[in-house]
Amino acid sequence: MPRLDLAVECPWNFDPGQKVHSAAACSARKDGVKCRLKVFPAGTASCARTGIQALSAFVEVISPQQEWVCKDVRYSIKLISRGPRENIKKTETFTFSSAANDRGWHEFVKHEELSESSGLLDRDWKVHLVAWVDGLPDVDLPQPQADIDFSTELNPVQILVSDGPALIFDQRILVARSEYFQKMLTAEYKESSTRVVDLRQDAQASHKCVVALLSFLLTNSLDPHMDFDLATALWAMGDKFCLRGLKKAAEVLLVDMISEKTVLRMLTLVFDTDSDLEAMCWKLLQEERGLLHDQEDQLDALIQESPALAKRLILFRDKF
């Protein structure tokens, strides 16, 4: 999931229609589709025509192909506040194409809202924007129901969970979509003969979580309204069961759930994974420098749960 950062000094000193760009980033292949953050610090030409003084912000997609389409790309743009004003964040899903390669907001924030006292400007009179883009072509994403031979015999698999009735699912789909289940159900393991997968000792494998996982195998999508606990459980399950598509889909939801209240819980899950989620958590802690001091009581619990993370957090806090 590409992350795009851009800082702009004194937006009102630009001319309407004058634009600046972030560095371009790609989702997977360096020679593939790229994206960048495009900002008009003094607004677009349409803002000037209507007399609106605003900063305009867009995500722009760049492809080496002459004709192209990227369907259902989800993107977010955030203006970071360092003061009492909350961050300004807007999110949308859009189909980018060679005919419509950028999308965003002409009036992302009005100039009258930009001030050092609000926190939307830093001491150097700069605004700091960051964007995330999800859904660009990625060669690592599995395709739904790829390589499933539905002419083979149907062998139902029983999945046991600790907090609900057993679930029954098609072994052909499990084997096609997950390396983990492929090895378990086709090699010399007891599950290959009993066709029973026992997840009752897995704390994250609740009935609700496993149902969502199996639904993802059928539809390649997740419920966008699920809560934080379910999304984090699915992220972990995607990692455990070698379901890269599930892990990525859960990550898309979790990006919008990272907040002052959830960042430490998120770090407990993603610490030392070198993932985009971990990078976003550390970025938030850096931007909200008083956060660790305000939540010092949580460090005691973290010392027991994850001593390495607690040590890193204490060292990180002491820098500020």
Automatic annotation (TrEMBL):
Residues 155-226 form the BTB domain. Transmembrane segments: none annotated. One of its GO terms (biological process) is protein catabolic process. PANTHER family: SPECKLE-TYPE POZ PROTEIN (PTHR24413). This is BTB domain-containing protein. It comes from Effrenium voratum.
